[in-house]
Amino acid sequence: MGKRDLKNYLGQLDKKQIADQLLELYDKFPEVKTYYDFVFNPKEEKLIGEAKAKISNEYFPVKSRRPKLRRSTAQKYIKHFVSLGVDPIALADLMLYNLEIAQRYTAKRERRYASFYKSMLNSFVQVIDFVIANGLKPDFADRIRSISDQTHKQNWENYHAFEQELERLIEQ
Questions:
Q1: Whose CA is closest to 155, among 99, 111, 89?
Q2: Model confidence over 44-73: pLDDT tens digits?
Q3: Taking a C-beta distance cutoff of 8 angstroms, is the pair 99, 93 a contact?
Q4: pTM score, two decimals?
Q5: Is residue 15 classed as helix, strand or coil in its secondary structure?
Q6: Cα 34–39–43 angle (5° rounding)?
Q7: For residue 151, with 0-12 CB atoms within 10 Å meaning exposed, 13-18 middle and 19 or more buried, which class applies?
Q8: Domain of life of the organism in this record (predicted)?
């Protein structure tokens, strides 16, 4: 069913029938409940804070001894917040925080796995694309530059790629 078909179907229903269907969706699908909970009570700062704590725990665990270093944890939150429509500034902040916390970890311990550096580059490209698409360059250019500089200072094996992505941002 396409959007047009859905519009026609909803146009045939009265207000009570539409309300009943929305309530049924709310009860049946957790994603709908999460969406409406966010729409009516958007606690963005709290959600972003919780996400930052979880991401930080990937690199500096509170309970276990070994860090897991999973980029997927941050990606899960980023994808979720995009679907909710979280403020782009808050989302860009979270994306940059993910990179900054990873760099804080690698400043103390060098990673020997190329997959880690490649994953961080993917996150860097993602944040640059997001910043450009949302017109947030003036707000985040300094932090992005700092991340790129840190890759060079920490001698990441792919720091040249970070510098190229930074140049792409500057040229925009």
A1: 111
A2: 888 899 999 999 999 999 887 888 888 899
A3: no
A4: 0.81
A5: helix
A6: 85
A7: buried
A8: Bacteria
